[in-house]
Write a structure and sequence with these properties.
Structural class: alpha+beta
Strand order of the largest sheet: 1-6-7
Distance between the termini: 72 Å
Shape: elongated
Radius of gyration: 23 Å
Length: 129
Amino acid sequence: MADQDQRIAALEETITKLADRVRELETESAVTRGSATMKRHLRCTSCGHRKILHSESVLAGSTSGPKGSPVSVTADGGMWAGYEAVGVFEIFVCGSCGRTEWFLPDPAKAAEFMRVIDGDFDDPAGPHR
């Protein structure tokens, strides 16, 4: 009976190790498929590095002049007319390789001011004509 208990304990340990490895492989697979993001997984999607730099807004403008405006989707127009920013971009940057991912925190709010390209299409020539 003791031999059987040892075999069961060894099998349970193997199952636990395999389950841990499956979770690791799922994360790696998500990174290579492109479904992983630095924002969601706190791991670089290019090199796997875990130190991620984050900025809630990126300023456009000169480093020698006055403070710039946030890079954003604007309502009704151009940057000189002072239009309202309806979506300010945030970025996540890998602390090792520098890969940068841009995100729009509320895309639905900015969608009416942007062109939509729908990836769900039936035309084999593609969505760009």
